TrEMBL record:
Name this polypeptide is given: histidine kinase
Enzyme Commission number(s) from the entry: 2.7.13.3
Pfam families recorded: DUF4118 (PF13493), HATPase_c (PF02518), HisKA (PF00512)
Transmembrane listed as a keyword: yes
Positions of transmembrane segments: 12-30, 59-78, 84-105
SUPFAM superfamilies per UniProt: ATPase domain of HSP90 chaperone/DNA topoisomerase II/histidine kinase, Homodimeric domain of signal transducing histidine kinase
Root EC class: transferase
Origin species: Enterocloster hominis
C-alpha cells in the first residue's frame, strides 16, 4: 500500500474518532446518562470502515473505541474495568460492524473499478474503430495526390499542382488532429490506469486563449469571438486536455456547419462549476444525430450533409471521455437563431455532479 494512502486512511480514522470523542464530551455535559456514547462510537466505526481502504482501520478503530469508551466515558472514569456488564457485547458489536462495512465497501469499490475498466475498454474500442477509418482515408488521399503529381509533373499546370499540394496539406492537418486525439486518450489512460486525470488550477482565460490561437492558425477565414467573465476564473483541470476539447469543438463547428463563418467561445460560472460554450452560425445538427453525437459511433453515413472524407464521431467521443474524466458532462443542441451549440461543464472542486 502506498504511503500517501496509509497517511490518508490514518488521518480519516483519527479525525472521525476525535470528532466522536469531542461530541461525546459535549453531550455528556448536558445529558444525565452516558448510554449514547457506545452508539456514537459504533457510528464512528461505521464511517471509518466506509471511508477507508481494507479492514485494518475499522478493526483498529473498534478496539480503540471500546477501550476509549471503557476508560473515558464509563464509571469509574479514567480507569479500565473489564468487568463492566455488556463490555464483551459492545466490543463484538463494534468489531462486527467494522468487518461488515469494510467488506461491503471493498466489494463496492471493486465493482466500481470493474465498471470503470469496462468503460475504458469500450472507449478504446470505439476509438480504434473510428481511427481505422479516419487514418486510412486521408492517407489514401495523400498517397493518391502525391502519385499524380510525381507521375504527371510535366503534364500538370501550376494551378493543378497547387491544388494537389493543397489537398495533401489539408489531409495532413486532419491526420495531425487525429494523432492529437489519440494522445489525449493516452494521456487519460496513463493516469492510474483508469479514466481519471491529475488536475491543477488553471486560468480559464489562458486555456481559451491558447485554444482560439491554435484554431485561428488552421482556419484564418473564420471569425472567432470570445466572451469571458470580467473576473479571473481558476478551475481545477488538465489544461492540455481541456484546450484540446475546445479546439475539437471549434473545428467540428467549421467542418460540419456547412457554411459556418463565425464561432463564439464563452464561459460562465454557475454555482460550483464553470460552463463552456462553443456556438456557431452554421447549419446546425440534425435532431436524429443529437442522441448519439458523443458516443463515438456516429459516422458520416448518419449525416448526409457531412464531408465524405470527414467523421465527427472520433473528435466528440474523445471530448466526452476527457470531460467525464474531469467529473463533468457535455451536451449538444441547436440554437433558436440558427447554428449549433456544444457545451460542457467542469466542477470548481473535485467531486461528481450532474447536468442541471
Amino acid at each position: 500500500m502506498k504511503q500517501h494512502t496509509v497517511i490518508k486512511n490514518s488521518l480519516i480514522t483519527a479525525g472521525i474518532l476525535g470528532a466522536a470523542t469531542g461530541f461525546c464530551f459535549l453531550i455528556q455535559e448536558a445529558a444525565e446518562s452516558d448510554t449514547h456514547v457506545p452508539l456514537l462510537f459504533v457510528l464512528a466505526v461505521l464511517f471509518i470502515s466506509r471511508f477507508t481502504d481494507g479492514y485494518i482501520y475499522g478493526i483498529v478503530a473498534s478496539m480503540i473505541a471500546v477501550v476509549g469508551v471503557n476508560y473515558v466515558f464509563t464509571y469509574p472514569y479514567f480507569a479500565i474495568d473489564f468487568t463492566i456488564t455488556g463490555y464483551p457485547v459492545t466490543f463484538i458489536a463494534m468489531l462486527a460492524v467494522a468487518c461488515s462495512v469494510s467488506a461491503l465497501t471493498t466489494q463496492i469499490k471493486k465493482q466500481e473499478q470493474i465498471r470503470l475498466e469496462a468503460e475504458k475498454e469500450k472507449m478504446r474500442g470505439n476509438l480504434l474503430r473510428a481511427v481505422s477509418h479516419d487514418i486510412r482515408t486521408p492517407l489514401t488521399s495523400i498517397m493518391g495526390a502525391a502519385s499524380v503529381v510525381l507521375e504527371n509533373y510535366g503534364e500538370l499546370s501550376d494551378e493543378k499542382r497547387m491544388d494537389f499540394l493543397k489537398d495533401i496539406r489539408e489531409e495532413s492537418q486532419w491526420l495531425i488532429q487525429i494523432v492529437e486525439n489519440l494522445l489525449s486518450i493516452t494521456r487519460i489512460g496513463d493516469n492510474g490506469g483508469s479514466a481519471s486525470i491529475d488536475k491543477q488550477e488553471e486560468m480559464v482565460e489562458e486555456i481559451v486563449g491558447s485554444a482560439v490561437l491554435k484554431f485561428r492558425k488552421r482556419y484564418p477565414d473564420v471569425e472567432v469571438a470570445v466572451r469571458l467573465p470580467e473576473d479571473p476564473l481558476l478551475v481545477p483541470m488538465d489544461g492540455i486536455l481541456i484546450e484540446q476539447v475546445l479546439v475539437n469543438l471549434m473545428e467540428n463547428s467549421v467542418l460540419h456547419g456547412k457554411h459556418t463563418s463565425k464561432v463564439e467561445v464563452s464561459a460562465e460560472e454557475e454555482k460550483d462549476r464553470v460552463v463552456f460554450y462553443v456556438d456557431d452560425d452554421g447549419a446546425g445538427i440534425r435532431p436524429s444525430a443529437l442522441p448519439k453525437l458523443f458516443e463515438g459511433t456516429f459516422r458520416q453515413g448518419d449525416e448526409e450533409s457531412c464531408d465524405s472524407r470527414r467523421n465527427m464521431g472520433i473528435g466528440l467521443s474523445v471530448c466526452m471521455s476527457i470531460i467525464r474524466a474531469h467529473q463533468g458532462d457535455m451536451k449538444a443542441e441547436n440554437r433558436k437563431e440558427g447554428g449549433a451549440r456544444l457545451s460542457f461543464w467542469l466542477p470548481m472542486e473535485r467531486g461528481t455532479d450532474q447536468w442541471r
